[in-house]
Amino acid sequence: MGEASHRFASLRQELVAKLIGSPSEQSPELVQRLVELPLSLAQKYLEIDAKGILQANVKEQFQVDLRMISTAFNILEKYGRNLLHPRKPHFWRTVKFNNPVFRDTVDTIQGGRDVLRLYGYSEEKADGLYFPDRLLEPNIPHVASVTVDVMMLRTELNLLLSDTHPNPQALQELMQRDYSLQVDIAADAMPLNPLSAISLAGNLPPHTCLLCGLEAPSQHCSACNQSLCPNCDWLFHKHPSRTHHHRVPVKNQTWQNPPPPPPPSLCSIPSESTSLRLPAVSRSLPNPRPPWRCASCQKTNDARSVLCADCDRPRGCKTPQSLSPEEELSSLGQLARGRWSCQTCTFENEAATVLCAVCERPRLAGRPGTGDAKPLIAWGEENGPQQGDAPSWQCEHCTFRNSVRGRICEMCNCTSLHSDPQQSPQLEKEVVGRLKREVVEAPAEPKGLWRAPPISSEEVEHQRQEKLREDGQKMVTMIREAESVGVAPEMVAAALCYSGAELPLAWLNSELPCVLEGMAELATQRGEKEPGGGLGAITLQEVQTAWVASRGDVDEAVSRCLSARRSKVRELKALGFEERGPVLQALYQNNGDLWRALVQLQRARLAPFHQRLWESEDPPVDFHTPDRQALLRRLLASLSLPSWGRAELVVSLMLEQPNEGWELADIVEAVKASPSRDFIKRLLSWECAVCSLALPRNKMQLLTSCECTICPECFALHFTIAVKEKHITDLVCPACSEPEISDETELLNYFSTLDIQLRSCLDQETYELFHKKLTEHVLMQDPKFQWCTHCSFGFIYESEQLEAKCPQCRKSFCVQCKRQWEPQHQGLTCDGFLEWKRTNDPEYQAQGLAVYLQENGIACPKCKFSYALARGGCMHFQCSQCRHHFCSGCYGTFYASNKCPIAQCPIRRSLHGHHPRDCLFYLRDWSVPRLQRLLQDNNVAFNTDPPAGTRAAPGGGCRVMEQKETMSGLKDEPCGKETPAEYAGLCEAHYKEYLVSLINSQALDPAVLYTLQEVEIVCRRHLTAAQLLPQGPAEDEEAYRGRLIQILRDQVPLGLEIPRRRK
Length: 1063
Known about the structure:
By secondary structure, this protein is mainly alpha-helical. The longest helix is centred in the middle third of the chain and has 28 residues, at 457-484.
């Protein structure tokens, strides 16, 4: 037993894990292995009380009760799987009590709500069970464990019902009854209805109907070799394959009662060896569920009954039984538009539903019958049919009230025992008498044999209701299968009435097309005999519609087709289509659809108008026509003018401008904009801000950054040149140069609008170039964007290594110092690598200090684009990539007129920059000895002689490269100027640049060498009047100079805030 428990725990944990991983996957093999283990209920079921649930719900009807529990646990298992699924249903947090599935399955057993509480539905309210608001998700492991118990119990009940349970001894805890199981099962195996135990069909006399066996035959078919009564003959030979059979009347046939059947055989009683292996259930049952009271007749019924035992009305029907048919119809109330009321339970359903949401009966199913109920009769009146009342009878199978004489039901096509209300009492007397004679004439049974207990009326009623439920379920299943493949329920009903096939869907797919073709041919032949030229060919769609409406009756369907075709022809004739040929052709081409045929006929009549409408353009408007009213009406209709006065304004303006050359469309746009004649004339003669050409305002181009109007020619020419030859930031207004783009967000907003205008005025090549430049400009804003120092190609470099390889030229460079990458740079800082080159590279040493100035090039402080600086020019630079203006000495910004951020700047109206006092812009005016003194005072070494190994330049002179202007353009050549002694092989200008670069690299302040006049000029340049205090009366010049220098160094320090690139 310990090994079995251990194996059970292992298998159960595996099943729980499977449920959590894949809730929708079925695992019947794993559940079967769990059930087969020989363990008790307490050992198997860890979460639910299986023993208590079975004892509380199993009554005398053992199989029915077990099946009911199995059905409820099947629904509970689905609840558990839904909670485990990642995509839960929309309303998973609530289980409503009025849900038909919950009410008819889970809530019919005791303990069903307890299982839902184990799932987590712990809050019970008046309308249902709810998940607590504090729990956002269910407890997945616990829900999976409860679901495993539910699956195991449902499997065990199914195995027990099918007599295949591997361990029936596991349910010995429930076997506590005082009587044996064989007696109960034998009693259940006996026939429930005495009438149904008599086999009428097996003892038919030779002169009775072969189908119903109740009436004498009246027709004999030689092809079928059968003799049938009138009703059965009509139904049997209604099939298309038997309609041509020839029948002859049967004469001299008398009705004879069938002989009594033989007595029941003892072998029909099951023995103990063949009894089911179902354990007995204990009699100590808790209180059963309360019965329900019928709302119509107040009869108390069993809790599991669907219909009342007295009046055959469902549980939810509240209409009194004594109401007349008219009152019953009026009691349904006024239904909403498109909704329908169930004839069984009076529930109001949506229009799109076919089955009732409460009782699941079809929409076309009639009201349940009233059984043997009879109408009240006044005292002294005869209990017979009244004159004028139509004879009717109730079907024993589906309870449908038939109005046609006979025994075959119009709803279910089943034969009933009582066919005529007048003959029913006589037939009942004959059957009852025959049964009494059989009982009297039956031989006495031995006293020692077992006798079956009598069947109670409640059991008979229960069996009848079960039969009703099964028949209804079959009908519901059939309708659902049809709807799943797109077949309407009416089609299924017609197929059943016509063919009687058990599989109507298969018959509709295989046989219906042939039947419809035959009916269409028959209807066409009959329609040709119509006076006036016939009714034309009947389509299959018309035939199918009529066939469904006639419920499968071929003759009625043909009549309906011809009648519908006649009415359609009359309607089209009344609308003016007198000729029958086109009318019949249109109806045939549109499958009998009246409105589509009407559209086709009207389109044919309008064809000449449509052809004339699109053949040529509208004739030009003649403003000199004498009919001014017609001209104004035409303008109002075709130009969408707002008023009659605006139309007159258009006419007057067109007549006033013989030499202006205005177009009608321009005048209309201007008139729509304003009713003022003067303003309209200004709109029609708007001047271009570039070329002063006068054009209508609606033809001018406008930019969002300004109010300048530009003619289309100037607009296209300006932006074509700017895109091809200038930077992206130069795409501004050609008249006012707006906007001044400094903010990237403002730039993107401006170009998003400009892109729409350029798309229509630029050629495809220029427009693609505009997009390319705009894309490069956006990429340059990325902090990881790098420019190649070899080929000026830009790319995004996301690596953290110093060596970067250009994807364009495949050459490497350092991302920090921008020098060409060499293997010696690996593992060294940029300063260390430069020092190594000065010490060990012969080529570097041969160029002397010229290479120092060459390597100390410039880089744009905004986009970081590097330039190899050719010395000897202006210090004002403009980046070719981002159009930024800056100083090559300090990297400070140059401001255009009125763009300086300093409001009190005295040179605000000119192009200028604010340089620090150590910038080459100021120090290039110092003498060489003064610069050398500043370096010597701060112990900074500098060269006065050329470095060892320096080669002289060809022809002598300075070796520093300069950009020189020649006849062929700008060209980089060596400086070539005279190199004085002790200037390290450089000319005076380049030697000063060398000394200033050393001063900048060491962050030396030149203010210590300022004279009094120089320090006053610098203070006025960088300080305000309030910060600059005048010289005191007792203060000498040297003290005043010292004080100004100290103020300058404190207020305007030289530090890392200067945007100069430092080496």
